[in-house]
Design brief:
There is one protein chain. The protein has 8 helices and 15 strands. By secondary structure, the chain is α/β, with parallel strands linked by helices. The chain folds into 2 domains: 227 residues, Alpha-Beta Barrel (TIM Barrel), CATH 3.20.20.370; 36 residues, no CATH class. Helix 1 links the parallel strand 2 and strand 3. Bound molecules: zinc ion. Zinc ion binds next to loops.
C-alpha cells in the first residue's frame, strides 16, 4: 500500500461538481430554471413560502406558479424561512417557527421531504446550525465562500462565487481545467465543488443582465468531467462517502449507504456499491 489517505471522487470517479443555488423565489426563477434545464444543469431554489405572490419589492411567484416553474427533476426545492428571518436577530422560538412553517408549507406543496436550508442574509450562529440539524435538515447553506473545497460541516455549506460577479470568468478558468493533485498533502487531492449563487431578480435589475448570466451558465455546462447536481445531491453524496467504513490498513471498505461511492485510494480510483464490501 502507498498510503492510507483516501479522497472523495464524485459519481463515475469524477473530480469536479457544479451546482447552482438561487434564493428568494422571485418571478425571474422561471426563466432561470428553463435555461438551467436546457443546458443540463441542476440547481437549488430556496423559497420564502410566507411571501408567495408578494407584489412589492422583488415580486415573488405565487405558490401555484412556484410549482409550475420549479417542480422539475433537475431542481431541488429548499427552505429559506417563511419570512426570511435572520437567526442572529431573533430568539430560537421565532427562528424555529419561521423555518418549520416554511418547511411544512413547501412539503405540502411539493409532496416530498424538504430538508435543505439557506440562511437568510447568510447569517448564522452555532446555535442555528445545531437547531437545523436537530430539526431534521440535512444541510444549511450560507454565502460568502470563495473556494472549491468540500464543506467540513454540512450546516456550514458555502457558495463559491456569485453568478454575476466580475470575477466569475476567473473562477471558471481556474475550475474548468482543474485536475486533482497527486500530492496526498494538498487540499486539491480531494474532489472540488463549484457552487454558484444568485438571486434571479438581480439578473433582471439594473438594465438586465440575462446575457451575462446565461453566458456564465453556458461556460460551465456540458463538460463530461463535471458532475452536475443540486446542493442536496452533493451533500448526500459527501455524507455517503464519509459514512464508508474502512478496515485499519484500508485494504477493504464497507458502504452502508444506498448508492455507489467513488474514491481515490492508493494511487487509483475505486468504488463500492450500495451495501457492499470491496477489497483492493
Ligand atoms: Zn434571501
Amino acid at each position: 500500500m502507498v498510503h492510507p489517505h483516501t479522497f472523495l471522487r464524485f459519481p463515475g470517479g469524477l473530480e469536479k461538481a457544479v451546482s447552482f443555488t438561487f434564493d428568494d423565489g422571485t418571478v425571474e426563477d422561471r426563466r432561470v430554471a428553463d435555461r438551467m434545464g436546457e443546458l443540463g444543469l441542476r440547481g437549488t431554489f430556496n423559497i420564502n413560502s410566507g411571501w408567495f405572490g408578494r407584489k412589492t419589492f422583488n415580486p415573488r411567484l405565487t405558490a401555484e406558479e412556484t410549482v409550475e416553474a420549479l417542480d422539475r427533476d433537475f431542481v431541488e426545492i429548499a427552505c429559506h424561512g417563511a419570512f426570511h428571518v435572520d437567526p442572529t436577530r431573533v430568539d430560537a422560538s421565532t427562528f424555529i417557527w419561521d423555518v418549520m412553517r416554511d418547511r411544512d408549507a413547501l412539503e405540502k406543496l411539493f409532496r416530498r421531504p424538504i430538508t435543505g436550508f439557506a440562511y437568510p442574509q447568510s447569517a448564522f450562529t452555532k446555535d442555528a446550525m445545531e437547531l437545523l440539524e436537530r430539526l431534521g435538515f440535512e444541510y444549511a447553506r450560507a454565502g460568502g465562500g470563495s473556494e472549491f473545497r468540500l464543506p467540513k460541516n454540512c450546516y456550514e455549506l458555502r457558495t463559491t462565487c456569485h453568478l454575476l460577479s466580475g470575477g466569475f470568468d476567473e473562477y471558471a478558468e481556474k475550475f474548468l481545467p482543474f485536475r486533482c493533485s497527486d500530492d496526498l498533502w494538498w487540499d486539491s487531492a480531494d474532489a472540488q465543488f463549484f457552487n454558484i449563487f444568485c438571486h434571479s431578480y438581480e439578473i433582471s435589475g439594473k438594465g438586465g443582465r440575462w446575457e451575462t448570466a446565461f453566458r456564465h451558465m453556458e461556460a460551465v455546462a456540458g463538460h463530461s468531467d463535471i458532475w452536475y447536481a443540486t446542493n442536496i445531491e452533493v451533500i448526500r453524496y459527501i455524507r455517503a462517502y464519509r459514512a464508508l467504513v474502512f478496515s485499519l490498513e484500508r485494504g477493504s471498505v464497507y458502504n452502508p449507504s444506498c448508492r455507489t461511492v467513488w474514491f481515490r485510494h492508493d494511487g487509483g480510483i475505486g468504488s463500492v456499491g450500495p451495501g457492499e464490501t470491496a477489497a483492493f
